[in-house]
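Blinded run. Sample ID left blank on purpose so nobody reads anything into the name before looking at the predicted structure. Input follows.
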Amino acid sequence: MNRYVFRSPRLGFLAANPALAAPAAAFYRRNRDAFAPFDPVWDEEFYTEEGQARRLAEEQSWAEAGRSFRFLLVQPRHPGKIVGMLGLNEIVRGAFQSCFISYKIDHTLWGRGCGSEAIAYGAEWAFRALGLHRVEANIMPRNTASRRAAAKAGFVEEGLSRKYLKINGVWEDHIHMVRLNGEN
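Blinded prediction complete.
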């Protein structure tokens, strides 16, 4: 298994790499039904090892270009099983110094604080390693567990973005949450 880019108390953060395609595909297949209400509609290829290999190769190239960073999460005692994903997406430099955070945790770990831990450590890495000023999250109002996890990780609500993302085939409103560098 790859070396961790960084760790939190319970999670190892592995950089996107096509070598992780098999456990990444298994993660998405295992969580397909649980994630469906909160995800775009994916084609069947997304759930295959080949589809994940292509996606991870693309995400690896984005990291090399400094555009975004995708991490696959593992529990160090089970390093071959992906239990989550965290992305620092669409990095904007210049006067903005910001990115959007995305995250998913295996449904078997929901309610155990792994999501807020991943979000908090991911934001801290963005501030420390990338020098960003703000990390932004957009969450559907009905996704109360995700909103709680982001709030627990130091994110505050800034407003509502109407019909922001197409989720499960429907344009959904999202609450815009932000964490600033130096604020918890």
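Unblinding after everyone has recorded impressions. The chain has one domain: 6-136.
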